[in-house]
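User: Here's a structure from my thesis project, written as structure tokens. My advisor, Dr. K., wants to see whether a designed sequence matches the one we expressed. Can you design one independently, without my sequence as a hint?
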């Protein structure tokens, strides 16, 4: 308010402000008084409220949805054990997809969707839809209040007609119970491989190439690499030539590819301090798994001056001159080295797979 304004009580006792121009502004309290409580719209009865046959029909519809949810969960369980991991098919617009993943995803989606739709339809057709005024109480947690809460839940169950609609009660129980099984199975079965041999075996293993050494290929061009292509300080992201076979045969390649990623670097051979690292490389050119031994990010940063490899996720740092030992960060073991040689045509090849598991080291704790 400025100096030219005067204030006086209004008719309703609220304050009004008179401005020099004669305009009177009512206070907020008066403005609120001008609106009447609009109340609630008249209650409209639903079909199922008055017609028992409509209620029965709604009950069957809800039960059908919960039944479809159970069916989805059962398909999930069967597919989990029956559809082979490596089975794939061509999905237009996406490419090669894992059959098992698609079946599991669709069946689990149907299972949860049907529980949701069933619950919504149940609420819209059979549960009470009258407006209820709920008074606020102090938030107390006395035994009496808890007892009241339990009684209120029971009453809610009765209001939802659970005791009168055993079909819904049992199918809902079945749907929720069965739905928990796929979730448990997913959690238990998806915590990663615990078999050390499985982690150690990648498609760098000569068994994937009829026992012959495997060529190192540029990623993603998939062209072979000659030793003279690798100049001092250069870095190559490398995949095994066996990956192409996987792709040509339409196999599911993502997991194999993730485990096989390798980084190839050339440095002055005199800088390499560890004899084994030197022997497993060629003239200062060395290859290491690109999967961080902390939690599996791609170790893709190379500091040419210090010869350090850095993981961008949590800054684990590996020293290339010391067989990629960890010099900083949370990783607990060196990056596994891939032994390389040069074949008769001058291309770099791996005569053997990794001699230790690639990736995170959680498996060590199992021992
Ligand atoms: S994943 Fe590499 S440091 Fe954490």
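Assistant: Designed independently from the structure alone:
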């Amino acid at each position: 308010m400025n100096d030219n304004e005067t204030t006086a009580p209004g008719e309703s006792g609220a304050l009004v402000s008179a401005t020099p121009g004669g305009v009177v502004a009512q206070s907020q309290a008066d403005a609120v008084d001008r609106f009447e409580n609009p109340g609630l719209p008249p209650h409209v009865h639903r079909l199922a409220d008055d017609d028992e046959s409509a209620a029965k029909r709604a009950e069957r519809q809800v039960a059908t949805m919960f039944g479809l949810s159970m069916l989805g969960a059962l398909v999930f369980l069967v597919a989990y054990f029956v559809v082979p991991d490596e089975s794939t098919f061509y999905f237009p617009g996406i490419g090669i997809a894992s059959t098992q993943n698609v079946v599991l995803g669709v069946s689990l989606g149907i299972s949860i969707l049907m529980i949701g739709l069933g619950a919504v339809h149940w609420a819209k057709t059979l549960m009470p839809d009258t407006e209820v005024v709920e008074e606020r109480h102090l938030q107390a947690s006395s035994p009496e209040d808890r007892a009241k809460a339990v009684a209120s839940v029971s009453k809610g169950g009765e209001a939802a007609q659970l005791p009168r609609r055993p079909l819904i009660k049992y199918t809902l129980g079945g749907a929720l119970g069965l739905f928990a099984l796929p979730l448990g199975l997913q959690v238990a079965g998806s915590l990663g491989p615990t078999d050390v041999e499985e982690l150690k075996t990648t498609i760098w293993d000569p068994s994937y190439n009829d026992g012959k050494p495997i060529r190192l290929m540029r990623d993603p061009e998939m062209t072979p690499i000659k030793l003279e292509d690798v100049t001092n300080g250069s870095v190559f992201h490398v995949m095994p030539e066996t990956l192409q076979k996987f792709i040509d045969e339409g196999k599911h390649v993502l997991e194999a590819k993730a485990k096989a990623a390798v980084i190839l670097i050339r440095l002055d051979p005199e800088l390499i301090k560890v004899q084994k690292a030197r022997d497993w490389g060629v003239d200062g050119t060395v290859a290491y798994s690109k999967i961080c031994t902390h939690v599996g990010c791609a170790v893709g940063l190379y500091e040419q001056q210090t010869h350090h490899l850095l993981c961008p996720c949590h800054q684990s740092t590996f020293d290339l001159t010391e067989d990629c030992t960890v010099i900083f960060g949370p990783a607990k073991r060196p990056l596994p080295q891939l032994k390389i040689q040069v074949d008769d045509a001058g291309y770099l090849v791996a005569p053997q797979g990794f001699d230790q598991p690639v990736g995170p080291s959680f498996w060590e704790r199992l021992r």
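When you compare it with your expressed construct, this may help: Confidence is low (pLDDT under 50) at residues 1-25.
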